[in-house]
Specification:
Elements lengths: L1 H24 L4 H28 L9 E11 L2 E5 L8 E6 L14 E6 L9 E10 L10 E2 L2 H10 L4 E4 L3 H6 L6 E2 L5 H8 L7 E5 L3 H12 L5 E6 L10
Parallel strand pairs: 3-5, 6-10, 7-8, 7-9, 9-10
Antiparallel strand pairs: 1-2, 1-4, 2-3, 4-5
């Protein structure tokens, strides 16, 4: 309504101006009338556009416009965090930047579980790009796990009796292709630091680790424990596995 009043005021102002000029130029000048009409139209358009811009600026985001989720920091680079999440927010991995002066009340580290509040604009890429307005640390203290070695028989019992168990093969791709335990996930030991958090998003899920002879599985199990995984069991090498394998 305020913008409409401004437009009406401008029209009246220009009408008075042109009425004064018409006293001298005469009402017979069609060029003058055309110029007058064009100028009035330009003024109206400019005022309306300015009003629209001002209106959009005056409407901040409501609290329920923001998106909230919990994610795990996978990497930190130049102030941006790459995080993974299992929340139903339309993406599973995001590169998070921050609005100016956002408060980060903790020392960010890879592996931390963080609660994010982000703006609704999600820029499509992979990972998607989002902007955080608020962050907080979810788990300041995780349970401390210890290294445990179990037998192949015990590992087989767990696989048969328990659900949601991950069997992790830490050998090379060529070794894996030559034969592996059915259902196993391949994650070579030298890729654990870079890929484990994206591949193994649940830090409390039970993980059974094996390699060829037992050396790399022990190394991998200890690495996973240091990264914060709480239920890691090493059952040695596949050469000691008396059960069926697949290719």
């Amino acid at each position: 309504m305020r913008e409409l009043n401004r437009v009406i005021g401008l029209v009246e102002h220009w009408n008075s101006k042109w009425h004064f000029r018409n006293l001298f130029l005469g009402s017979f000048c069609p060029v003058c009338h055309r110029i007058k009409s064009c100028l009035l139209m330009v003024c109206i358009i400019l005022v309306l556009l300015a009003g629209c811009s001002q209106t959009s600026l005056e409407q901040p985001l409501e609290e329920n416009d923001y998106i909230e989720f919990v994610g795990v920091i996978v990497s930190i680079d130049n102030g941006n965090w790459v995080v993974t999440t299992t929340y139903d927010v339309g993406f599973d991995k995001a590169s998070v930047s921050f609005i100016e002066h956002v408060a980060i009340p903790f020392n960010p580290m890879v592996g931390q579980q963080i609660a994010f509040t982000i703006e609704p604009l999600i820029r499509e890429s992979y990972p998607v790009q989002v902007t955080a307005v608020k962050v907080s640390l979810v788990d300041t203290q995780r349970p401390t796990a210890t290294y445990i070695r179990i037998s192949a028989k015990e590992a087989k019992r767990i696989m048969d009796e328990e659900q949601e168990v991950i069997v992790l093969d830490v050998r090379t791709l060529s070794e894996f292709q030559q034969g592996h335990i059915e259902g196993a996930i391949l994650l070579p030991v030298d890729e654990i630091q870079d890929r484990a958090r994206a591949l193994l998003s649940d830090f409390d899920q039970k993980i059974l680790v094996y390699c060829r002879s037992g050396s790399r599985s022990a190394m991998a199990a200890r690495m996973l424990i240091e990264m914060g995984y709480t239920q890691v069991l090493d059952f040695g090498g596949i050469i000691h596995w008396p059960y069926e394998i697949v290719k």
